[in-house]
Amino acid sequence: MTQPNPLIARYEAPNAETLALTQEVRALYEEVADLLDRDEVERLPGYFLDDCLYQVISRENHEQGLPQATIFCDGIRMLRDRIVALRETQVYGPRYWRHFISGVRILSTDKGEIRAQANVLLTEAMSDSEPTVHLVGRYVDRLVRQEGRLWFRERSVIYDNYRLVRSLIVPV
Question: What is the pTM of this model?
Answer without folding.
Answer: 0.88
